[in-house]
Give the backbone structure.
Amino acid sequence: MTKRPTHSLALLLLLLCCSCKAQQVRYSADFAVSASNFADSIEIEWTNEQVYVPVDIEGQTYQFLIDTGSSQMVVYEDSPFLNLCGEAGFMLAHDANGRTDSVSILTMPPIRLGGLALTGCRATLHRRAVTGRDFDGIIGFDIVNRGLSMKIDVAKRLLVLTDRRDFFDDEEGFDVKYRLNYHVPYVEINPFGSHTDWARFDTGSRQFYSINKQSFDHGESLVSQPLGAQVEGRCTGRYAIGNYGAEPRGEVVFLALERLRLGRFTFTDVHAVTTQGGSHMGAKVLEQGAIVFNPRRKRMRFEPYAEGNSSVVGNEQMEIAFVAERGMPVVGLVWEQGEPYRCGFREGDMVVAIDGRPVRSASQFYGWGFEPGRAYRFTLRDRDGRQRTAEWVRLPK
């Protein structure tokens, strides 16, 4: 005699049927491009050391961040065109700090980028790690993995996309190989001594260069002479914020590198910090020269704006960083030689008020309209619950 399925079994079958609608999908850059044998120059915006490009969706213009550290397009839960996207399944995604999570994959509506129409692009859906950002989505490295060569030139405020194999061949520059890890580009660099480091080339990061702490420790153990003045300080803290939160707390080393070699090109006077996440070169490199990615040859070309095979960076050291902790803004790290430390900020301090106005969330703090050159009175609460005030100019003139 055949037994009828129990209520539990029936529920299990129902859940299995529902889960089939959200299947795990593989990474794909197989979207359609409306033109062939083309070279398209698109105006970009260079603001706060980030590259933005206008994207048209159903007649509306949106601002997208160009982020070579993202494997594909990104849509946020508050993106105004979210209702135009279709569900495509889910995928395991990795953030800049090496954390992994399952994310929803969406199919983008047809979008127009310059003179090109892109159809069938996929995007990952995320909640913003840092709210208050004024861009609507992200253009990721899938546009290069699709087979298009890409040039980012912030001096001319241009993004150039082409499917022509030899379009950039006559341009002068310094070529380095890149390799893909989780579908984003990594380049080999030499930060000090004979130590080499594979760093993600990540225009979504504002830093010039950050080196993985384990990589730094290994390199420091190999050098014949101590790094000396190239180490500007050490502290315990964290600063890097990925899609799934801040990096783990640990020792951070502040560096003043005499030189940083990228292939045959040398950057001098480079301030950097260590990170618990992956090493990366950020968008600030674009102030020194244009970058060209050639997907067929897996080459990245650096085209310096000035003549020669070296340039002086002279970037400022990171003095302070804030992270979200239990929804509130907390000092993630502070450099002992910096102005914030002298003003009284310490690692672990929570910002609870500014000029007497309560700070109720990290989102509110990140979106605070700080005026350049103006001093603010910060009310801080340490980990023991003690409060004090510190006056500080958040944004120099």
The longest strand covers residues 250-262. The chain is about 10% helix and 45% strand. Helices lie at 7-19, 142-145, 213-222, 339-343, 362-366.
